[in-house]
């Protein structure tokens, strides 16, 4: 697809991968809206890169409806949904609670699904569209303490595969990007970005992968793409 004048919606776009992706796509000529739960942070992040801010929590169905209403009122058409919003939790198995699963799944699984469901209604009518889900290499390689987070990303991976089979007949490309460890604010309760390290991935690398996947001619798409640091050791 051509990114110039494409209308793109990115959830969780105030920091990290979402913010870096929004910045890169705007530099490529796209019109981009970003969502975030904190109004002040969302508006600040949007001003920095020239994006449209939408204060919304993907875990809240009312906010999901508001997001699409605001986006369509502004742009009239949706070309790409990037399901980037996500939260994490690392906890030993014996300490896990139902509430742990519910909190993570409401964002990483239910929120992504409800955003995609709204986008699918638009894309099916248009007979065209793109969904990019930001997964994790943890979806296929669990780790100690990762019962909740890794399983949420495994669920997102499975949903991606189902949406691919469901939406291809409507010319909708559904793609999954699986980053390994990225030095962002992810998992930091203070939402402060971690310092970049020369042997670790940055948000920029994932943004580049997303941009490249989108720019393939619409006749083809990459179902799943993993991005690893070359030498993280």
From TrEMBL:
It comes from the Bacteria. Residues 6-180 form the Ketoreductase domain. The keyword Oxidoreductase applies. It comes from Pontibacter cellulosilyticus. InterPro entries: KR_dom, NAD(P)-bd_dom_sf, Sc_DH/Rdtase_CS, SDR_fam. Belongs to the short-chain dehydrogenases/reductases (SDR) family. This is SDR family oxidoreductase. GO terms for molecular function: oxidoreductase activity. Keywords: Oxidoreductase.
């Amino acid at each position: 697809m051509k990114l110039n004048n494409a209308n793109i919606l990115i959830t969780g776009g105030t920091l990290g991968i979402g913010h870096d992706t929004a910045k890169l796509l705007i530099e490529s000529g796209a019109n981009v809206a970003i969502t975030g739960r904190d109004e002040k942070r969302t508006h600040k992040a949007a001003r920095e890169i020239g994006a449209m801010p939408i204060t919304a929590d993907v875990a809240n169905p009312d906010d999901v409806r508001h997001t699409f209403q605001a986006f369509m009122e502004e742009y009239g058409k949706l070309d790409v949904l990037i399901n980037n919003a996500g939260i994490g939790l690392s906890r030993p198995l014996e300490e896990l609670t139902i509430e742990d699963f519910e909190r993570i799944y409401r964002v990483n699984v239910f929120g992504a699904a409800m955003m995609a469901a709204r986008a699918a209604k638009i894309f099916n009518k248009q007979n065209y569209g793109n969904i990019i889900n930001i997964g994790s290499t943890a979806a296929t390689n669990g780790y100690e303490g990762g019962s909740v987070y890794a399983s949420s990303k495994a669920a997102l991976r499975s949903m991606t595969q189902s949406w691919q089979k469901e939406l291809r007949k409507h010319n909708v490309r559904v793609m999954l990007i699986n980053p390994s460890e990225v030095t962002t604010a992810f998992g930091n309760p203070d939402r402060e970005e971690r310092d970049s390290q020369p042997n670790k991935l940055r948000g920029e690398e994932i943004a580049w992968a997303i941009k490249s996947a989108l720019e393939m001619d619409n006749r083809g798409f990459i179902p799943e793409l993993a991005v690893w640091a070359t030498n993280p050791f």
